[in-house]
Automatic annotation (TrEMBL):
One of its GO terms (molecular function) is N-acetyltransferase activity. The keyword Transferase applies. Residues 1-142 form the N-acetyltransferase domain. The keyword Transferase applies. Keywords: Acyltransferase, Transferase. PROSITE patterns: GNAT. Pfam families: Acetyltransf_1. InterPro entries: Acyl_CoA_acyltransferase (IPR016181), Diverse_Substrate_AcTransf (IPR051016), GNAT_dom (IPR000182). This is Acetyltransferases.
Length: 142
């Protein structure tokens, strides 16, 4: 990843994390650490850059965990952002299908979060077979 790529991904992350699609806003220091971990040696996170016609169209980040509920690898889609000019072109659908193919036979569950206000994303995820969970997720930051 070049410095220019990092700058473009950081700008997209800033748009994503400043939008209503995300509950918890993150400072640039955290976002830069996320990028560094994606291209570094961290085995728990992977980063993707979407390109179309030679232009960066968006990005995604996934994290790996273990699901005791399903007995195996769980892939969390942490971020998925498509620039407005590239939305509606099937990039998100293609990415989710790519993940299923990439982890076929290894992952037992794919998981993501979406805000109720983000109906376009919820529609895409539903069409790809994702379902709303019937319980509340809780967190504690340390």
């Amino acid at each position: 990843m070049t410095i220019q790529d990092t700058d473009q991904v950081l700008c997209m992350m800033r748009v994503f994390y400043d939008s209503p699609a995300v509950l918890h806003k993150a400072p640039n220091t955290i976002l830069l650490q996320d990028i560094a971990d994606c291209v570094g040696e961290c085995p728990f996170i992977e980063g993707y850059i979407f390109e179309e016609d030679g232009q960066i169209a968006g990005y995604a980040m996934t994290a790996k965990s273990y699901s005791t509920e399903y007995g195996g690898l769980c892939i969390w889609v942490e971020d998925i952002y498509i620039k407005p000019a590239f939305q509606g072109r099937g990039i998100g659908k293609a990415f989710l299908e790519h993940l299923e193919e990439q982890y076929r036979g290894r992952a037992v569950r794919f998981r993501l979060e979406a805000e109720d206000e983000n109906q376009h994303a919820i529609h895409l995820y539903s069409k790809q077979g994702y379902q709303k969970l019937p319980y509340v997720q809780m967190t504690k930051e340390v």
